[in-house]
């Protein structure tokens, strides 16, 4: 006899525990399985017969989706879905969900923390104390935040939260967003500039955009050349938004002054990366999203979205809602 119980696979996870996901699955009579898939073939083997996938980093490509004809839903732990072929999923009637607002406070806090640490020269000052030397001469010139402009690229939920926090610290805040008209002001009082003007006039440039074909290497040799001399780049969105080789070159030749990076084109960051040998660079391991509160919310909502689709309900978050139009929902 064939079981009608919903079956969901967690394709991969580095969270260390799936207790929260399992508790939610048990409450909805869902069979939950954990794998650690790294390749398309890994996913195809582990996901055979599954109704839904919960994904962290595993590649969910067109080949994978076409190889899983019974698949109904894909949920990603996080905001970005660049590892999921949403177009292919839509073509095959598979709902794709994310959790777009779970880490707004956490990521914006982290972006501000990176900017403050570099703006006050904290990495170099800390290193100097540990080495028994006065490093004050090596971090200058430092400037008051109130004398500087904080530029935000991408004025979505996280970008807007970052802008508000920067403004509260005394920065003059400006933003760029392709969906907003330069020369206007947001309801929160952020002046909207062109991309080029923002780069040329900001002392800090903080990135808050998704990774897609339009934003891949948005920060490259050409756009880095537009930066205000001595400016700081902060990236807490996606590593592929920045051309790493171009950034390294710009840091080495002094075209920009510092960089605070939580995300990288290759993760984890290789120990051979030239970024590791540069001064005025502050690196964290894709940790901006993390607090205990955000971790619980992320796990719960990711699994709930997938279960809802698989059991005929409309999920809280869905990127391609048209796929549900042909299905009975309640």
From TrEMBL:
Record carries keyword Secreted: no
Sorted UniProt keywords: NAD, Oxidoreductase
PROSITE patterns: D_2_HYDROXYACID_DH_2
Taxonomy, superkingdom: Bacteria
Every D-isomer specific 2-hydroxyacid dehydrogenase catalytic domain range: 19-320
Annotated ranges, domain D-isomer specific 2-hydroxyacid dehydrogenase NAD-binding: 112-288
Protein family (similarity comment): Belongs to the D-isomer specific 2-hydroxyacid dehydrogenase family.
Name of the protein in its database record: C-terminal binding protein
Organism field: Sinomonas flava
Classification lineage: Bacteria, Bacillati, Actinomycetota, Actinomycetes, Micrococcales
